[in-house]
């Protein structure tokens, strides 16, 4: 997929689209600290959640400066750029696009002037009523004087809509405007935002995407994962609760509940998205993945010589499988850790090499062995098919594939970019048919109940939609949801108005 940073990529298999990351958000309020550098390190810890663009906004109490660009955190920021960002409050964002194209205009944090100062905002998640909200914003703009969505900005994200709604109340301070607008947002949102003086954090009523609060010696930190708090030396206080708005300023920390909590945390965070050194809802992600592997071994044992992981996401489940089964664990695949992202398409020669640029087998380990290969998920099946072929070419006698999640049969509309339902291999084929398709000797997925049990969370408190099709937040009509929903609205408005809609809604 085309990207704007021009760096190398691990997306080497044409047509293969695995589970893509969610965004990462970070915020810090800490007078006397180098908040820009703290945010940089926090984003570094959250790089796995999005690799398309990164940005930091900093305020010194009188104005906000936003610095953002396409690429990885280490590519966007330099020592000089961080030294130029002075203030006591900052927010940061690392993006994978789930609404709106991957272009600079859609990089975050967003920025808006308001009647009482300035606003910068970062968002992890996907709203499901973006189309309705954009129409509401247009109505508010006509009476408030606030710029309509995209006016002069070319941005097409639900984040831009949220920013516009918060800024569209000239008679209210930002805290009150947030309490007015946040209940109207449907879907998944973990927000960090700021004005000139204060840091804000908010989470949707279902708490689908993670968000945690941490304490510094001289301030407060908000982050998508506890690992980011660890990196900057903050102690974990608690999770931001579903339906909660947290405000941090010189008066301290205060909390508002704008919606009744109905917890539905994302189950896939435990499988793939979150770092293994993160804790979610009091449960270690690493411990969860190890237990998933143990469950796989109990449910689907097999006579084998070695258990090998697909690095990195299959490692801890493979450890658990080996512990429970008694089959020795071994590293049979070497991952290239220095692969970034690009829009450079591989040549036919490189395409035939396929997955080898990302993973290469250790032939001395694999040759003549009966292997259990543990991976996190199967989406289209192309990666696993190439992997099995590569292992057989390296001399594996048998290849038994074990997957640490149930079959992914439904797309996510809450902040993870899966393939469409028609493209999901589990939507059309049985497990036995998928096994034949990837040419494995056997294939098994952990059951949904076993996965839920490994998290130690109540089933009713988890969003399982990608596995069972039960969406905790109602979805709108097909033409009013999806990655390009605002771009589609722009096109429809432009067509209906004879091309004059660019003044109000601009396409990317």
Give a concise summary.
This protein is an alpha+beta fold.
Short key terms for the protein model shown above:
Glutamine Phosphoribosylpyrophosphate, subunit 1, domain 1, 508 residues, 2 domains, six-stranded antiparallel beta sheet, alpha+beta, 23 strands, disordered N terminus, 22% strand, 29% helix
**For the record, what is the CATH homologous superfamily label of the largest domain?**
Aminohydrolase, N-terminal nucleophile (Ntn) domain
* CATH architecture designation of the largest domain: 4-Layer Sandwich
Question: Helix- and strand-based class?
Answer: alpha+beta
Q: Please count the beta strands (DSSP E, at least 2 residues each).
A: 23
Mean pLDDT: 85
> What is the number of domains?
2
User: How large is the share of residues in beta strands?
Assistant: 15-25%
Distance between the termini: 16 Å
Whole-number radius of gyration?
A: 23 Å
Morphology call? globular
Largest sheet: 7 strands, antiparallel
Tally of separate helices: 17
What does this protein look like?
By secondary structure, the protein is an alpha+beta fold. It folds into two domains: 24-267, Aminohydrolase, N-terminal nucleophile (Ntn) domain (Glutamine Phosphoribosylpyrophosphate, subunit 1, domain 1), CATH 3.60.20; 284-465, 3-Layer(aba) Sandwich (Rossmann fold), CATH 3.40.50.2020. It contains 17 helices and 23 strands. It has a seven-stranded antiparallel β-sheet. A six-stranded antiparallel β-sheet has the order 5-6-7-8-12-13, covered by helices on one side. Strands 17-20-21-22 form a four-stranded parallel β-sheet, with helices on both faces. Helix 5 crosses helix 6. The longest helix is centred in the first third of the chain and has 15 residues, at 130-144. It starts with 23 loop residues before the first strand and ends in a 12-residue tail after the last helix. Mean pLDDT is 85; it is low at 1-18, 149-153, 340-345 and 490-508.
């Amino acid at each position: 997929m085309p990207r704007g940073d021009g760096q190398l990529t691990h997306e080497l298999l044409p047509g293969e689209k695995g589970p893509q990351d969610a965004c990462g958000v970070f915020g810090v309020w800490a007078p006397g600290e180098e908040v820009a550098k703290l945010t940089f390190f926090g984003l570094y810890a959250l790089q796995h959640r999005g690799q398309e663009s990164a940005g930091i906004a900093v305020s010194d109490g009188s104005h906000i400066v936003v610095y953002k660009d396409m690429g990885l955190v280490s590519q966007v920021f330099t020592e000089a750029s961080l030294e130029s960002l002075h203030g006591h409050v900052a927010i940061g964002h690392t993006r994978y696009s789930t609404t709106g194209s991957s272009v600079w205009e859609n990089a975050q944090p967003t920025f808006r002037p308001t009647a009482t100062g300035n606003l910068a905002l970062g968002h992890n998640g996907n709203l499901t009523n973006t189309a309705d909200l954009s129409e509401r914003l247009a109505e508010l703009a006509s009476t408030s004087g606030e710029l309509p969505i995209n006016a002069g900005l070319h941005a097409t994200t639900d984040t831009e809509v949220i920013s516009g709604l918060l800024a569209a109340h000239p008679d209210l301070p930002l805290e009150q405007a947030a309490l007015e607008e946040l209940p109207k947002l449907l879907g998944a949102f973990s927000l960090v935002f700021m004005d000139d003086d204060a840091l804000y954090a908010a989470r949707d009523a279902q708490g689908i995407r993670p968000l945690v609060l941490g304490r510094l010696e001289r301030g407060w930190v908000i982050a998508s994962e506890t690992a980011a708090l660890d990196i900057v030396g903050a102690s974990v206080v608690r999770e931001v609760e579903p339906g909660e708005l947290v405000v941090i300023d010189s008066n301290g920390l205060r909390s508002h509940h704008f919606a009744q909590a109905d917890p539905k945390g994302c189950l896939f965070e435990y499988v793939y998205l979150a770092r293994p050194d993160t804790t979610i809802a009091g449960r270690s992600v690493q411990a969860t993945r190890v237990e998933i592997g143990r469950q796989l071994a109990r449910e689907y044992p097999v006579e084998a010589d070695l258990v090998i992981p697909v690095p990195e996401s299959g490692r801890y489940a493979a450890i658990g499988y080996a512990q429970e089964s008694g089959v020795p664990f071994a590293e049979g695949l070497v991952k290239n850790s220095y692969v970034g992202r690009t829009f450079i398409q591989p040549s036919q020669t490189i395409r035939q090499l396929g997955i080898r640029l990302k993973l290469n087998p250790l032939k001395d380990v694999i040759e003549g062995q009966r292997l259990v290969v543990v991976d996190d998920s199967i989406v289209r099946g192309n990666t696993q098919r190439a992997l099995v072929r590569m292992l057989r070419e390296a001399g594996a006698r048998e290849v038994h594939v074990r997957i640490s999640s149930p079959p992914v049969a439904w797309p996510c509309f809450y902040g993870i970019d899966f393939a469409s339902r028609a493209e999901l291999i589990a939507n059309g084929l049985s497990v036995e048919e998928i096994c034949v398709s990837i040419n494995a000797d056997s294939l098994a997925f952990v059951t949904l109940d076993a996965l839920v049990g490994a998290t130690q969370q109540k089933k009713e408190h988890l969003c399982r939609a990608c596995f069972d099709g039960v969406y905790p937040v109602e979805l709108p009509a097909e033409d009013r949801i999806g990655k390009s929903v605002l771009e589609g609205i722009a096109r429809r408005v432009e067509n209906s108005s004879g091309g004059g809609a660019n003044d109000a809604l601009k396409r990317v």
